Amino acid sequence: MTTPHPKGSHEEYETMPWAMLADELDRGKNRTLALTVIAAVAVGILAFMVVRSIRQPPGTMVEAPPAVESAAATTTVAVTMAPMTATTVIPSVTVPEDATVAPPAADAVLYSEEDLKAGVPDVDVRMAVVTAEWFVSEYFSTGEVSDGLVPEGSPPREVPEGAYAWVEWARAVAVDGIGSGRYDVTVVFRAMVGDAAQPIAAAPPRAVLVPVLIDGTGASAVIDLPAPLPLPPRAEVDPPPEADEDVPEAVAAAAVEQSAPFGEAAVVVGGAQLEGGWRVVVTVTDGSGASYPLAIFVSG
Hints:
Layout (H helix, E strand, L loop, with lengths): L1 E3 L6 E3 L4 H38 L5 E3 L14 E3 L32 H6 L4 H17 L24 E16 L2 E13 L6 E2 L3 E9 L5 E3 L4 E3 L19 H10 L5 E11 L2 E9 L5 E9 L1
């Protein structure tokens, strides 16, 4: 039954079959839930197959798990996945036909292959230097000389009894490549000399030219006796500032402290004030008892 609305525009329901409506709603919810579960299972199977197809070689058969059940039936799905490849697209670049390369600037520095190799000593040059320094160290020292170091057929050295000579240092200062594997090496050296009548002392430095041959295998040999040479010339420079100024006490103390590693009993002789600090001359006594003037720069 219905009762008309006072205004006559609507009807008011006094009796409704609520139990029937509730049953219908429950059946609808159950169907929705079942469909949702089936859809989720299908998505999971598809994802599993895609992942396996990526990890396995092309053409591999991918099977779904054997026990997937739904309200309708139990279904087994077999899918053959095609090989998956990734393609990288590189954008094309169009170069104008009238494009030109600008020439290097007028002040640009261009290096040749020879220039780039100039800073790396050649293996043969290094071998020639080592051979010449080795030869000078033994030839001008008393004692036995290594076999094969002196050219064959050279006259023997004559060393008086009691004479002593020992090359303290030998340094190659120039190498001249003559060709055919020959290198003329200029060596400067100094020897400590003495005999029974006089104590051992340092002789003045001397220079010699040592001709060295490097064969195709890299072996080396001195091919002639050394030739005497004048010492390399010294550069002309201005003398340092005279140390004729009184040095402040703080500067003198700093100079003495800096000279401590060399010896003891440092004495400040004087100094000269320069731009940025002081040039201080000190005398320092070493372990032998000798005193040596040293120049120390103290900033400030």
